[in-house]
Structures are given as C-alpha cells and as structure tokens.
Amino acid sequence: MKRRDFLAGAAAVGAIGAASAVSAPAIASGKRTLKMVTTWPKNFPGLGTGAARAAKRITDMSDGQLTVKLFAAGELVPAFESFDAVSSGTADLYHAAEYYWQGKHKAFNFFTSVPYGLTAGEMDAWIHHGGGQELWDELASGFNIKPFACGNTGVQMGGWFNKEINSVEDLKGLKIRMPGLGGEVLRRLGAAAVTLPGGEIFPSLQSGAIDATEWVGPWNDLAFGFYKVTKYYYSPGFHEPGSTLSCGVNLDVWKSLTPAQQAIVQNATMAENNYMMAEFNARNGDSLEVLLKKHGVQERKFSDDVMMAIGDASGEVMREVAKTDALTTKIFDSYTDFRRKAIKWSDRSEASYWNARKLPFKYS
Q: How far are the Cα atoms of 9, 60, 130 from residue 227, in angstroms, in the given order?
C-alpha cells in the first residue's frame, strides 16, 4: 500500500473515533493544533514575521478551531528540511520559498521566481488568473502538499560583492550565495554559486567562504548586517524580479479540514501575500537610505553588457529546464506565454508611468 493511501485511510478512521491519542481529543473538541515550520530565522523582519502573521491569521480567523504553532528554522527541523517534514506529516505546514525545493523537482522554481521572469503583480496574475495555481497544485500534489502564495518581496537587489563587477569576466571564479535558477545562470558565466539558508550567510561572508551574496533587499539586508563585511551593493536582481513566498499544507491535513477551514487557510495566505508585499515596499526605501548614508555602502548598477550576458545565459538555462519532463514543459509554456502578454501590458502601463514620473516637473 502506498504511504499516502495509508495516511488517507488513517485520517478517515480518525474521523470516526479511531484516531491516534494525539489527534482524537482535538477532533472530538472541534479544535486542532497545526505545526508550521519555516526556512527563516526566528522573528526575521518580513520573512519570519510574515510566517508568524500567516499563522496568527489562520488561528484568529478560525476562532481557535485551528491553532497554528510556528517553528522557526532549526527549532523543529533544519530550514531546508521543511518540505520533507510537511510532505511526510512530521509538520503540517511550511512557510518558505519554493525554489528551495528544486532538488525535488526543477519546476518548483517557477513558483518563487526565475531569472528575468515575472514581477510580483504579474506572478499574482499568473497564479490566480493564468492557470498557475492549477499547475502548482498538480506539481505539489505529487509530494503530498497543497501550496498557496503567502508573501512577496518584490524586485530584489542584485547582491553584495567584495569587489566591483564591471564586466562578465569579474564574475568568473566568484563564490556567491544564490539559490534557484539564478545560481545556475551565474555558474554558466563562471561563478561558483551555492545555496545557504539565511542564518548561515553572514558568517560565510565574514569568513571568506563566499565572496558575494544576494538575500532580498535593503530592509532584510540591513537587518542581517551585510554592510559590516562588504560595501558594494548591486542592482537589479535579475534572478528574483518578484519572489513569491509559499505556504505548503500537508495534503492529507488539507483534505481533513472542513470547507470553511480550507477557505480560512486560503484567505489568510492571500491576505499575507498582499500585506508582505506592501511592507517590503514601505521599508526598503528607508533602509536603503540608512545603508548609503549611515553605513557608507556603495551602490552600483550592473552594466548593460553584464545584464545582456546574464539574459542570454538565463534564456539558455530556462530552455534546458523546460525539457526536464512533460509537467515542467507544461508549466514553462504557461509561464512564458503569460510573460509575453504581461510584458506588453507592463510596458504600456507601469513602465510608461514610471518614465513619465521621472520627468523634471514641479510636484512637491
């Protein structure tokens, strides 16, 4: 018998009173405690606090029927073991970034961010109105997980470097922390990209184990104190133009929830998805000013030549990923079709407005 079938059968038995000693009292009283694990340090601004808010939203909206207990990275399981913990039922939910699971399936990258991909607003549009959620469900169900978008950082910065990056040659041999497909793009250009959980980045940068790192943006980067060990801060973040954070629910747990409880989880995660994006937009500008004016950080932009080389390598990587299997091809086709349409509209709407807003007219 497949393990999932066994778990589903056990859940059904539990519903009629033959559940385990742990779950039976909770079901009998109509109340349940669910364990949420995360890939973030405890109380880390934006990401860790976003996970905490999502847990609290579910708890509050259910009027205590569902109490979500939060475990930061390392408290119950190590950061990168969150997926397996929820898939197997050791934990009930995770809050993370799906590209951390690319070792399970390359297609998970599409549901966080891919190089030169969709912005935050475009990601939401694809997930909710372009077929993305259905494809995500199909992918994640193979691992016993029901996924939801549960936060977004917006366009990220290009990263912190211990030297200036003036040409593609400067990337060769560079040891950089960059997860997801962005890391693979930089490998194609000669860098040595590695994946590290958030809590390990600063000591690795400080010790010289890595020469550079990306994380998120000014608000989070200020909190981690990267300015203490390196001063060159680059933009834009080609690798993460609109990084969606996720809440994955154990599929057996999801199916055991009532329709009302499922609606609570769905709406609580959607609320956090919007709230987190607003918070990053509110905090990043002020934090950048602190980095530049108080800590002497030197802001830089990648040259067009560097960005073009990265773009070419990005296309090469994406086309190769698309050939992984039939499901990845289907997700890639959906994503890139939506991307083409989104670019046409964004150029005429937001991009046109941003350019107009920079004109030197008097406003304030």
A: 53, 38, 40
Instruction: Determine the number of helices (DSSP H) and then strands (DSSP E) in the chain.
Output: 14, 11
What token pair was written down for 51?
């996970």
The CATH H-level (homologous superfamily) assignment of domain 3-154+242-281 is Bacterial extracellular solute-binding protein, family 7 (3.40.190.170)
DSSP 264-310: HHHHHHHHHHHHHHHHHHHHHHHHHHIIIIIS--EEEE--HHHHHHH
Q: Which residues pair with 246 in a beta bridge?
A: 96, 149
- Render pLDDT for 137-152 as a digit per residue (tens, 0 to 9): 999 999 999 999 999 9
The rounded distance, in Å, linking the Cα atoms of 352 and 339 is 18
Question: What is the pTM (predicted TM-score) of this model?
Answer: 0.89
Distance CA 158, CA 186 (A): 12
**Nearest partner of 95 among 160, 39, 176, judged by Cα:** 39
- Give the class (CATH, top level) of 159-240+296-339: alpha beta
- What amino acid is encoded at 26 in this protein? A
CA atoms within 13 A on the CB side of 323: 5
Q: Outline which parts of the chain fall under CATH 3.40.190.170.
A: 3-154+242-281
User: Are residues 239 and 146 in contact, defined by beta-carbon separation less than 8 angstroms?
Assistant: no
Q: What is the pLDDT of residues 48-60, one digit of tens each?
A: 999 999 999 999 9
Where helices occur in 165-303 by DSSP H, the ranges are 180-188, 201-207, 218-224, 251-256, 259-289
Intra-chain end-to-end CA distance of the chain, in Å? 69
For 265-293, write each residue's pLDDT tens digit.
999 999 999 999 999 999 999 999 999 99
177 touches 210 (CB < 8 A): yes
Query: In this predicted model, what pLDDT tens digit does every residue of 103-126 receive, in sequence order?
Result: 999 999 999 999 999 999 999 999
Residue with tokens 């200036």: 164
Question: Cα–Cα distance between 182 and 342 in angstroms, integer?
Answer: 21
